[in-house]
Amino acid sequence: MRLADRTAVAAACSGLLAVIVVTVVASVLFAVSVAQRVDDQLEDRARAAPVLAAIGPRIEVSELSFVVAGARVRTVSPDGDAETVELGLLPAGGLPPLTGPGWRTATADGESWRLYAVEVDHPRTGEPTLVEFVEPLGDVRRQLRVLRRRMITFGFAAALAVGALGFVVARRTARPLTDLAHEVAKIGDRPEEGWTVSVDRSTPEVAEIAGALDDGLQRLAVATRRRQEALEGARSFASAASHELRTPLQSAMTNLDVALTTGHDAHVAQARSDLDRMRTALDAVRRLSEVDLLGDDVFEDADLGEVVDRAIGALGAEGRAATIAIEGPDDVVLPLWVDGVGLAVENLLHNALRHGAGPDADPRVVVTVAPGSVTVDDDGPGVPPEDRARVLRPFERGAATSPGSGLGLAFVDRVAAVHGGAVRIETSPLGGARVVLGLRPPPEPSADSPSPGPIDL
Known about the structure:
Blueprint: H1 3-45, H2 49-60, E1 71-76, E2 82-87, E3 102-108, E4 111-121, E5 128-136, H3 138-185, H4 204-262, H5 265-291, E6 300-303, H6 304-315, E7 323-327, E8 333-336, H7 338-354, E9 364-370, E10 373-378, H8 408-418, E11 423-427, E12 433-438, E13 455-456
Parallel strand pairs: 7-9
Antiparallel strand pairs: 1-2, 1-5, 3-4, 4-5, 6-8, 7-13, 9-10, 10-12, 11-12
Helix pairs in contact: 1-3, 4-5, 5-8, 6-7, 7-8
């Protein structure tokens, strides 16, 4: 059942229950009021008890007997004989015997009678005389029945009116929810950019529901776009990887065939080199594809300097003597994908050492940690300005003879993107390339600390 219908039924039931309660309470109060009025009338009539005690027998035999209100007078003669005189309108079936003063309610001739007896002294004999005044309750009961019927009729009419009014009000009250449901039902036909609902509602509770729903839809839209981008990226990577790996795979197979025929170890070594290149490329593709499938749960508050220190420690010497200096403040804490940033810094250091000063000189690398970025400077040949955007794309290398899979800088660029930053390639003061890994801006540090000295590898 719809909310408006349930509200209408609830309003009708509540109205009917209220009318029933009012009817019962009113009936009881009316009955008490009428009964009290009857008792008051009997008490007023009781003031004439001494007069009736004196002239009751004479009224009984006169024409006034049928004119006066109902009463009974019980007298006792000096010799002990009791005599009861009945006056006015009394039930034909008779009333209970008059035995003493007080209030009673009796039933006779099919209806109820209210009895009030008082005791007075007989004016002549001085003997105790009981005078009982009688009032029929039939009119009172009839009035109560009429009142109940009228209130029940009014109650049903009021319940129907309240139900109709509740239905109209409930429909108007539930209209924001109905509009919200219709709007949500149309979301499936829209692109992700249109996954939103209006939060400007007349009812605060509906506005809160719409706001929470809109936030959830926005998060779902972002996640859906990321999944679609990841799928598109996976398709692109699969195509590019297939093309990139076809050449080393064919070369390795050719060299192995030649080695099997001639027995030359040089061909086996070349085939091993080609297979290593394929392994490196596949590992890079895997890492790069994982970046697009990240969730917010991978981010944690971490010290950027410590992440860079661990990356330098895990790097090794690349088979050459080299000097790496790290500069920048301590306690640069911000939300990071720690593993991704560490691998990105390792890739930058690998490139810096691989393209260092040359075979006759030890390469020199300077790593600068700043709030929100890591900068790597080397003293190699650098990257020409026209190639700086290209080398950030997957499977692109600085030169055709450059080693590697062409995915290192692409991975670094994606790590920066998931942090809300970007990668910039510039000319280094050392003469080579400067690569700036831009990350999400951190809180301002409280104070700068002295940087550690050069680290010799």
